[in-house]
Write a structure and sequence with these properties.
- By secondary structure, the protein is of the alpha/beta class.
- An eight-stranded mixed β-sheet has the order 6-5-4-7-8-10-9-11, sandwiched between helices.
- Helix 4 links the parallel strand 5 and strand 6.
- The longest helix is centred in the last third of the chain and has 15 residues.
- It is globular, with a radius of gyration of 17 Å.
């Protein structure tokens, strides 16, 4: 291990868990919730904002989903990773910096061991995604990178989002969780638009907890609302996700004029 990686490892916060009313929560040394799992339904997605990170399903045809590949930057409580693997049948890669998070997810959050369809990579997401083997191989990229203070994304720049775009297949999508106690949303949106193009970006209205999910496509498309509704109905019936409700709060970001 390099001196830099040793220093990073020593600086990482302690991972703790708590259980309340049938739900298990993951924390990084603070009361802030970094992920959760309903104990009796470990492969469902509990948090609303993580559910919304699956909105890329509205932009593809359902029969193609099991043949696609997913990647998560930031493991959290492994909700998105488990859902893509177990519920959608997708080959899935998760990149996580903190080895404690991986160990806790395996022990307490039902994260399966690595296999032909699951790879959990321990490393810096900003560096890992630049490796050639990942380029243009990812159909669904979920980015949820926050430290224990949850103040702003830890990786948030035009260069970072350009590297994310480089991961995607031609009809691939990136979904990003934007949450923080600093006013970073407008800055992050501008960076994503710079990397992907203004016409490529969609957004949800914020959840009551303050999470705003953005979606960016490698190749912009604007499906008719009727097609989106048809796909939402299929997704909801197949997965239990509240996809029909998404249509009320999910729309393309209008390009800036001038």
């Amino acid at each position: 291990m390099s001196k830099r990686n040793t220093a990073v490892s020593e600086a990482l916060p302690e991972v703790t868990i708590s259980d309340w009313d049938g739900t298990r929560y993951l924390h990084l040394g603070t009361p802030w919730v970094q992920g959760s799992m309903r104990i009796k339904k470990p492969f469902d997605i509990d948090l609303e904002y993580v559910q919304r990170m699956m909105a890329w399903l509205l932009l593809v045809d359902w029969p193609s989903v099991p043949e696609r590949r997913a990647m998560q930057l930031g493991l959290g409580a492994a909700a998105a990773t488990k859902f893509c693997l177990q519920k959608l049948g997708m080959a899935t890669t998760a990149i996580e910096l903190n080895p404690q998070v991986v160990n806790v997810c395996r022990q307490w959050f039902k994260l399966p061991p690595d296999s032909d369809k699951l790879q959990v990579v321990l490393g810096d997401a900003g560096e890992e995604i630049q490796k050639p083997q990942y380029l243009q191989t990812v159909d669904a990229l979920q980015v949820d990178l926050y430290d224990h203070e949850a103040a702003a994304p830890v990786l948030d720049s035009p260069d970072f989002y350009q590297h994310c775009r480089n991961l995607l297949t031609e009809d691939g999508c990136m979904t990003v969780n934007l949450f923080g106690r600093t006013n970073s949303y407008a800055r992050s949106l501008a960076y994503i638009q710079e990397a992907f193009g203004e016409a490529a970006v969609w957004r949800f209205t914020a959840t009551k907890e303050g999470n705003t999910i953005l979606l960016a496509q490698r190749t912009p498309s604007r499906p008719e609302r009727e097609l989106l509704a048809q796909r939402a109905d299929v997704v909801q019936q197949a997965t239990g996700l509240p996809a029909l409700k998404w249509l009320k709060v999910f729309k393309p970001v209008q390009p800036l004029l001038g």
